[in-house]
Amino acid sequence: MTIEIIEKVFGELNALKCKTEKEVEEARVRFLGKKGEITALFEEFRSVDGDQKRAFGRPLNELKQAALAKIEELRSSAQASDAAEGSGDDLSLPGEQYELGSRHPVSIVRQQIVDIFRKFGYDVAEGPEIEDDYHVFEALNFPPNHPARDMQDTFFVSAGHLNPLLLRTHTSSVQVRTMEKYPLPIRVICPGRVFRNEAISARAHCIFHQVEGLYIDENVTFADLKQAILLFAREMFGADAQIRMRPSFFPFTEPSAEVDVSCNICHGKGCNICKGTGWLEILGCGMVDPNVLEASGIDSKKYSGFAFGMGIERIAMLKWQVNDLRHYFENDLRFLKEFEGATEV
């Protein structure tokens, strides 16, 4: 090693010019890489006699610092040059067209239902999807071992204790929490996702969505319930829609009813959608059972109320004549694109 070699590398470094970041990186490797010129000089410095280390050590360190500064200067210059020149794209050309997505049909119908009942003065309430047995069953008049529990095959998250956790089978649990928490009168709808251990088919799925409604006040009657559902049906299916109510059974309502709406395809004349009957089933409803009111601390002698519940997928199937429930969960873009712009009530 000699001072002349170090000065020679200094000269090469000072004369270095780079136009691109790639050239800067190549220069860095040439001087400071594992096999670079300056790295080689430091390796050679290790074998220099002790009395000569001082003579070579300081120039070597100055050379390395100068190399680092030069590389950084060249890199900054190259980046600034690239930014000034731009990417070389022709900015006068039209931009790339990105295909926009659309709202899911279930989301569209859910929002339509919410908007309709908001006009009637209903608030929106939501609750947890993982619930306890009390709010899903017991507070809704499902005693332990009651056969009505078999109506809903349940996914249990934890079992074996007094109040096991489960995936809610209906959004009625939100109604219970609302009755426990909010002052009277209560007028709410409870949209949400629910889960039931059912075989997946064209007419059933283990995951689906519901909207349930609850109205509690003094002197609420079955006539109020019928009027609310009739107004909803005409907002959703058209001003000419008619409803009929058939006696049914739900543990948490008494009396209970199933509600059909006149077929919006054949207008009651009979078609393949309504199977020739002229009617389509849309929801279940009834007057809130006094036991349910009392379980939530509401005086059933002073207050009464009604509740109803509908499957959002079911309403969407009727509204758009979809014949297979599984379409809503398969994310087939060909199917979903059919609902672009379908946001009006």
Write the layout of secondary structure elements.
Elements (H helix, E strand, L loop, with lengths): L2 H12 L6 H12 L4 H9 L7 H33 L19 H15 L3 E2 L5 E3 H4 L28 E3 L4 H10 L4 E10 L11 E11 L4 H16 L5 E8 L2 E10 L16 E10 L1 H6 L8 E8 H9 L12 H4 L9
Parallel strand pairs: 1-4
Antiparallel strand pairs: 2-3, 4-5, 5-9, 6-7, 7-8, 8-9
Helix pairs in contact: 1-4, 2-4, 3-4, 5-10
Give the terminus-to-terminus CA distance.
Answer: 87 Å
- Rounded radius of gyration (Å): 37 Å
CATH class of the largest domain: Alpha Beta
Broad shape: elongated
Mean residue pLDDT: 86
Q: Structural class, please?
A: alpha+beta
Number of helical segments with 4 or more residues: 11
CATH architecture descriptor text of the largest domain? 2-Layer Sandwich
Q: Considering DSSP H and I runs of 4 or more, what fraction of the residues is helical?
A: 25-40%
Please provide a brief summary of the model.
This protein is α+β, with helices and mostly antiparallel strands and 345 residues long. The chain has helices spanning 3-14, 21-32, 37-45, 53-85, 105-119, 133-136, 172-181, 222-237, 290-295, 312-320, 333-336; strands at residues 123-124, 130-132, 165-167, 186-195, 207-217, 243-250, 253-262, 279-288, 304-311.
What does this structure look like?
By secondary structure, the protein is an alpha+beta fold. Helices cover 38% and strands 19% of the residues. The protein is built from eleven helices and nine strands. The chain has helices spanning 3-14, 21-32, 37-45, 53-85, 105-119, 133-136, 172-181, 222-237, 290-295, 312-320, 333-336, and strands at 123-124, 130-132, 165-167, 186-195, 207-217, 243-250, 253-262, 279-288, 304-311. A seven-stranded mixed sheet has the order 1-4-5-9-8-7-6, with helices on both faces. Strands 2-3 form a two-stranded antiparallel ribbon. A hairpin with a 2-residue loop joins strand 6 (243-250) and strand 7. Helix 3 runs antiparallel to helix 4 and helix 5 crosses helix 10. The radius of gyration is 37 Å and the shape is elongated. The mean pLDDT is 86.
